[in-house]
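_Backbone structure tokens_
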Amino acid sequence: MNEFTQVLTIAGSDSDGSAGAQADLKTFMARGVYGMSVLTAAVAGNSYGIHDATVMTPKFIDSQIKDIKDDFKVSAFKTGMLSDSATINTVADAIKDHPFGFFVLDPVIITKHGAMLLEEDAYQTLIDKLFPLADIITPNFYEAKKLSGSDLHDREEIVRAAHKLQELGPKNIMIKGEHSDDSISEVEDFVLLEDGQSFWISEPYVKTDHINGTGDTLSSAIVAEVAKGNDLESAIRTAKTFTYNAIKNVIDVGHKYGPINHFIKDDIQ
């Protein structure tokens, strides 16, 4: 019997199932891999918003990681919401001691609408401790702006920003395109690979309030595809298409800002 492909997310729990570890696990299943989770925080919320949250203790986070490593063969993993410096330091130390293969870092720093999620000290800790360990980071448009110190007005600025981010330690960079403006027709992402090659990738913009978990889904789809043995460029292209289809095929759940649709059936292998 062949060993089933196993992957991991280290992220927060969203009680409404739209984002965080829940979106990651749904994506893992949709992409045909066995997913596990280490929870860093838990959020009480629904489609109207977030109303309460708690952060897991460093000891509990470390225990979860150790237990996964002691039993399972993880081929690739990702990090999502890491609430504070203590959490980031705990995760960085733990994954050095217990490596899980290819590392996709989704830097949950700023929302897709531009709101800051991390305090400044935690932001710097993330850069100092986790960026150098990452095989790829997947910042959204606003995160890339802050990380690079650039306004990202045009393609040339985005390309320069990607090179700046690479200098912070990650081997590969995927800067996700802006999608908060209903006047745009395409969401265009830029990818800079470790060997210096680069490419643009785009899908049509979909006007919808059902976009919760898009970043989680994209990064976890990359994890799944790399774990299955696909090269990084193919993994990114598959993840982009899968995420677009999940946005395009709206699922009627929640009353306001809803989830994307991980139940889609597509021809992506």
